[in-house]
Amino acid sequence: MANKTVTKTAGTNKSFIDRMGGQKFIVLLIVIALFIFFCAMSPGFRKYTTVVSILDYSYYITLMAIGVAFPLMTAGVDLSIGTGLVCYSLIGGYLIVHQGWPTGAGMVVSILLGVLFGILNGCLVAIMELPPFLATLCTCMITRGVGSVVVGGFGIPWPTAAAPGGWFRSIFKIQVNGMNIPIGFLWIILIVIIMTFVLNHTKMGRYTLAIGSNKEATRLSGVNVRFYHIMAYVICGFFAGLASISYSAIFATVQPGSGAGFELEAIGGAIIGGVSMTGGVGSITGTLAGVFVICLLKTGLPFIGLTANWQQIITGLVLIVAVLFDILKRKKEGK
Amino acid sequence: MKKKVLAVLLGGCMVAGLVAGCGGNSGDDAAKSEGGSEGGGYHFEVVVKSFQSTYWQAALQGIEAAQEELGVTTNATGPNAESDIADQVNMLNNAINQNPDGIALAACDQNSVIESLQSALDKEIPVVCFDTGVPDAPEGSVYATVVTDNEAAGAVAAENMYEVIKDTIANATEPVRIGEVNQDATAANIIGRGMGFINKMKELIEADGKTVAVIGNQLYVDSVENNGDEASADVIIEVAVPAQTTVELSATEAANIMNKDDTIAIFGSNQVTAEGVLTANQNLNVLAATPDEGIVGVGFDAGATLKAAVADGTLIGAVTQAPVDQGRIAIETLYKICEGEEVSDVTTDSYWYDAENMEDENIAPNLYD
What we know:
The complex is a heterodimer.
Chain A: H1 16-19, H2 23-41, H3 48-73, H4 81-97, H5 103-127, H6 132-151, E1 156-157, E2 174-176, E3 179-181, H7 184-201, H8 203-213, H9 215-220, H10 225-250, E4 253-254, H11 262-272, H12 284-303, H13 308-334
Antiparallel strand pairs in A: 1-4, 2-3
Chain B: H1 2-31, E1 43-47, H2 54-70, E2 73-77, H3 85-97, E3 102-105, H4 114-122, E4 127-130, E5 142-148, H5 150-171, E6 176-181, H6 188-207, E7 212-216, H7 218-223, E8 235-240, H8 247-258, E9 263-268, H9 271-284, E10 287-288, E11 295-300, H10 304-311, E12 317-320, H11 323-338, E13 346-348, E14 351-353
Parallel strand pairs in B: 1-2, 1-3, 3-4, 4-5, 5-13, 6-8, 6-9, 7-8, 9-11, 10-11, 11-12
Antiparallel strand pairs in B: 12-14
């Protein structure tokens, strides 16, 4: 289903691009092209430290994007992941910094909070039948408020790498002979492999896509649609929880009131990577590639000397092209 | 279906009520700061931007100091977050209804409070604004405004940075670069600070016989008088503004400047951008105490991360505003008004702090977490 192919002669003759994975393959080519372009244009970009920075800043967006791909594939959306991420990170960090909890316990709380809000989102959408946009917009506001109330307006500095309890920062980055090794990317690859398997070879994944394609038909074929619909949001919440940990690990301070807008980068990444906003289509590897288009633009554009306004214009244009591409492809398939 | 929707709405209302109730209570409990009742003095209401942040706790210290000194009483309130504008307007109206002898106000939003200020004027309650002015306030309602002189604050950063880098600039045979990361090009205080730094740095460098060119963000570049030519200048000041106010984008902008071989110093002009400089340094590891060893970093404001970086020497220092002074002066100004004295606007100083002086008793209270 993820790779509907343009049938030329009785469906046997796939084009080269389709055989390589369709949109995913094109996006991967774009990522490579962008990387080469920025390397050629800026000496600062060519440095190893820049690559480490890009990876550092990509973890939380990637994790959010993998999570939000599931609601997107059910033809829904989750707007609460950005402010949710900050909320879970604030509360987990508050318990560690101000209540003396061990770091591990605070991290578990962060993830559990993500799951909890995932269940709430899922129930609002699947049981109460609220439109996903509205339901998750509300939880977006709630998470933003809850985070600020719990910490009382304070920024939360999670323990630094050298401080006691700072071990969690080395989940994503370790130092060997004074050089930073971004091992977080290995975890991301592992997660992408696991979630690709979940999406393509388990009931959870197949039913998620089925709900997005045709909810009624899925229900009539005896699937517990309500349960799997809720689970799509729970997965999303769980990944927002994981993203909150990667955010806490990379950045020194988490500020209450921030986080709005993070979700758009994650959703944008998933869509560039071929997840359809109308549901039923998508892949995790494509999402990963899509996120890197966004991350490369975010880091690369300042390096080639473009100022803030131009960065926004170009990022907006790229998103339009990606969505247009999706629509054109769909039209072509519809014929 | 209808029942379900109703149930959700009712449930939502209950949760909202709970949250609002709890928030309000905790605010009120903490907010009571009844002080010295001796002297039979005046009673002032204080409305701050967000009661619970440490910046405002520092302001409250100054308010308490003033009430002891003057024998007045104060009652301070404020919303949970600086963005809770409607809550604050409510609190301001409540304060007016209590007919205090004066009100000290740090407005979350410059426009939302105008109507309330009119009713304060009608009731002849004097208002002193602190931290943030209300430029369009009804004529006669705001007696005085107590704010940071942001241009001077930026200049303090430039002066202290120049002390460390001036020999390198004097001896340089090739052009050198100084970076500045500003959170935005829209807020008056950030622009004031950014330009304060640029103008002072330019003045100091030119006084020593070198030429300066300012490049980067258009608004800042256009605001510079007699800007030099980038191709021939001895010193280039590069101004970066992130596309959004996040640590990550600030860090990217900072990393871009810090990656250049000719960069000798960098200034982050508020907490977010200063933390951006530090985040970039996590991977680059170039910040140092002198230009010979690396890049000299200077920050602005406080917060745990910034304070730690100043204490361990990653940044050579930072500039902090004076919330304690602002709180104290706001109450003193109200007192003067009640005593029938003439008052005028006050700008408060900013302090340079580094590893040496951050424990001093006139600095430490201003360094909030």
